[in-house]
Specification:
InterPro entries: FSCA_dom_sf, MIP18, MIP18-like. By secondary structure, this protein is α+β, with helices and mostly antiparallel strands. The protein contains three helices and three strands, in the order ααββαβ. It has a domain at 37-118: Fe-S cluster assembly (FSCA) (GMP Synthetase, Chain A, domain 3). A three-stranded mixed sheet has the order 1-2-3, with helices on one face. The protein starts with 25 loop residues before the first helix and ends in an 11-residue tail after the last strand.
């Protein structure tokens, strides 16, 4: 039985991806003043468990976000996350983008500028959040 009022009442749900953090270089761990680099895997770890506004599944389980759609330039302090709504006419895309933005602004150092966008061609009317 389909849920009433949902944009995508029967989304495809995927398993959680196993991720592995590469070893941190020992010299950077020993230096208290060293700045810990931020990479796409760390950003993905922060946003993967955000719950979809319409379903009890995470953005990762719905493949709304994945590590390949995250670009991090640590040296310039810039993060860009592209996400894919579950359906082309998703009216929750703006809310999803806002959830991702707020999560990253709370988790990342203030030196980062965060850009969130809908993956080009994946939504009928929205190109950027």
């Amino acid at each position: 039985m389909a849920a009433v009022g949902l944009i995508n009442p029967s989304p495809v749900v995927y398993g959680r991806k196993e991720t592995r953090r590469s070893e941190v270089v020992a010299s950077s761990r020993d230096d208290e003043n060293a700045r810990e680099p931020i990479d796409s895997l760390e950003v993905f770890e922060h946003i993967r468990d955000i719950t979809d506004p319409e379903h009890p599944y995470s953005l990762e389980q719905l493949r709304v976000v994945n590590e390949d759609q995250i670009d991090v330039d640590d040296s310039s302090g810039h993060v860009r996350v592209s996400f894919t709504p579950t359906v082309e006419h998703c009216n929750m895309a703006t809310l999803i983008g806002l959830c991702i933005r707020v999560k990253l602004l709370r988790c990342l150092p203030q030196r980062f500028k965060v850009d969130i966008q809908v993956l080009r061609g994946s939504h009928g009317s929205i190109n950027q959040c």
